[in-house]
């Protein structure tokens, strides 16, 4: 079922989104060669609790961590670990914040030190694809308009959009309808209505789009070992256009 949020509910989710955005801004300052994704896990949980929030995905369907930390060829749902990050790595940190019952969801890919130009291109294209998708989220548009805009742009840059993992509605629980594909046909799928709160979260690979699962049953990685990036925002559909609830500010 697709739930429509009131202005009060959206504002509550926006408060959760601000804490989440602040967390990402702090992570950006500390991610560098030699740090571990376990350090990021510990920092995030402490930062959230200090701000009166909790990590919603911890305990979700048995998941044990406050963040997903996906490194290099890991597409999503990577486990935090005590392995040091190296110069030239990329890492995607994904989390869901619960603040007094209101949820917000956002993922961001970070460079660890200096990275090659082709990896910068991957990150830049994925980031732009996020915003091209969000731009389509107007009252009366269809879900397929979002996916079509993302796929068309990404493939024009000779990169590939992951099919197996998608965006979704948010609140009152972590994953709600509608499903938000990052590929497909314009003019198809459910219509977007004022009051919907959804995520767009394109995952883009340098090689093939297909994923394979690790033995842990959670972590997905590229089938060919190519690098993968992801950016995600939670936003509300309003009569004035999409309102990003996890916006990080002018450097977003």
From TrEMBL:
Binding site for a divalent metal cation 2: 105, 168, 201, 232
Residues annotated as binding a divalent metal cation 1: 94, 105, 232
E.C. code: 3.4.11.18
Cofactor(s), by name: Co(2+); Zn(2+); Mn(2+); Fe(2+)
Entry binding sites for substrate: 77, 175
InterPro entries per record: Creatinase/aminopeptidase-like, Pept_M24, Pept_M24_MAP, Pept_M24A_MAP1
UniProt cross-references to HAMAP family, sorted A to Z: MetAP_1
Function: Removes the N-terminal methionine from nascent proteins. The N-terminal methionine is often cleaved when the second residue in the primary sequence is small and uncharged (Met-Ala-, Cys, Gly, Pro, Ser, Thr, or Val). Requires deformylation of the N(alpha)-formylated initiator methionine before it can be hydrolyzed.
Protein name from the UniProt record: Methionine aminopeptidase
Native source organism of the sequence: Listeria swaminathanii
Gene label: map
């Amino acid at each position: 079922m697709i739930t429509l949020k009131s202005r009060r509910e959206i504002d509550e989710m926006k408060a959760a989104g601000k804490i989440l955005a602040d967390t990402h801004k702090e992570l950006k300052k500390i991610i560098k060669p030699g740090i571990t994704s376990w350090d990021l896990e510990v920092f995030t949980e402490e930062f959230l609790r200090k701000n009166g929030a909790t990590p919603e995905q911890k305990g979700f369907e048995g998941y044990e961590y406050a963040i997903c930390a996906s490194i290099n060829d890991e597409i999503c749902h990577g486990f935090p670990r005590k392995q040091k990050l190296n110069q030239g790595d990329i890492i995607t940190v994904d989390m869901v914040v619960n603040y007094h019952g209101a949820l917000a969801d956002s993922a961001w890919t970070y460079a660890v030190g200096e990275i090659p130009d082709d990896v910068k291109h991957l990150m830049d294209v994925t980031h732009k694809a996020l915003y091209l998708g969000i731009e389509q989220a107007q009252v009366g548009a269809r879900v397929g308009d979002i996916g079509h805009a993302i796929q068309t742009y990404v493939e024009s840059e000779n990169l590939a959009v992951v099919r197996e993992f998608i965006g979704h509605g948010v609140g009152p629980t972590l994953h709600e309808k509608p499903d938000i594909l990052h590929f497909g046909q314009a003019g198809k799928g459910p219509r977007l209505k004022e009051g919907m709160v959804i995520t767009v979260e394109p995952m883009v690979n340098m090689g093939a789009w297909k994923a394979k699962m690790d033995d842990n049953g959670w972590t997905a990685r590229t089938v060919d070992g190519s690098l993968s990036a992801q950016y995600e925002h939670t936003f509300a559909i309003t009569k004035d256009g999409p309102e990003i609830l996890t916006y990080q500010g002018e450097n977003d």
